[in-house]
Write a structure and sequence with these properties.
This is Crossover junction endonuclease MUS81. It contains ten helices and eight strands. The protein is an alpha/beta fold.
Length: 228
């Protein structure tokens, strides 16, 4: 299933939720700190969620023009690139006949091209809300097929690899000791914050048996700690 940012659920954006319902897509409306749509995998027994490596930022042509003029455009792209998810999708949706969008169409198209070439995003143009929802349905189908048969341990490794500085050797070493997020969270429950932040720091990885280190240990604690 996937999450829709609560900012997209106000009355102005209700049509997109109605279209998603028509397509029988499973979604929930949440407050997302970055992006408009993300896909997750949820354990049916524990309700523990893993964020899958796909995220979509949706812009109507008029909103794209406004975001460029008020400098949100670059700031939002920067935050998306820092979120740790590998597949960044910038979706640009037509707005009527694309009149009164705030900037010349060529300027908007150049911004989208720069997002593709310079920033490394995938860029998708859609013609309408309905077209956008059909695209989201296609992405959902692809993501479901890719991750349908993944076990919790494999999913946990993939999630750890989204963290900056986390290599495959380090992730494998962590998962060798804590096979799933549930195991790690249970371990955190037995510690205070200071101990939890150091929990993974001395785990050995690779042929040279180096330590995972304090910095990564703290980052993982912040992401997986059961405490607020």
């Amino acid at each position: 299933m996937y999450y829709v940012d609560r900012g997209k659920s106000n009355p102005e954006n209700e049509p997109i939720l109605q279209e998603l319902k028509k397509l029988n897509l499973q979604y929930e409306v949440r407050n997302l700190k970055v992006g408009d749509y993300v896909w997750i995998c949820r354990d049916v027994n524990t309700n523990i969620e893993l964020v899958l490596p796909y995220i979509v930022e949706r812009k109507r042509m008029d909103d794209l023009g406004c975001s460029i003029k008020d400098d949100r455009f670059h700031e939002q792209k920067f935050r998306l690139k820092q979120c740790g998810l590998q597949n960044l999708i910038y979706l640009v949706e037509s707005h009527g006949k694309n009149e009164h969008v705030g900037l010349p169409i060529n300027t908007l198209l150049q911004a989208a091209t720069n997002t593709l070439v310079q920033d490394g995003f995938s860029v998708k143009f859609t013609d309408s809300v309905k077209d956008t929802c059909q695209y989201l349905a296609c992405v959902t189908k692809v993501v479901t097929n890719v991750f349908r048969h993944f076990k919790a341990k494999e999913m946990f490794i993939r999630q750890l690899l989204q963290i900056k500085g986390m290599s495959l050797d380090k992730a494998l070493a962590v998962v060798e000791k804590y096979p799933t997020p549930k195991h790690l969270r249970l371990a955190y429950k037995e510690t205070d914050q200071a101990q939890g932040e150091k929990l993974l720091s001395c785990i050995k990885y690779g042929t040279l048996k180096k330590n995972v280190g304090q910095v990564l240990s703290q980052i993982v604690y912040q992401l997986f700690s059961p405490f607020d």
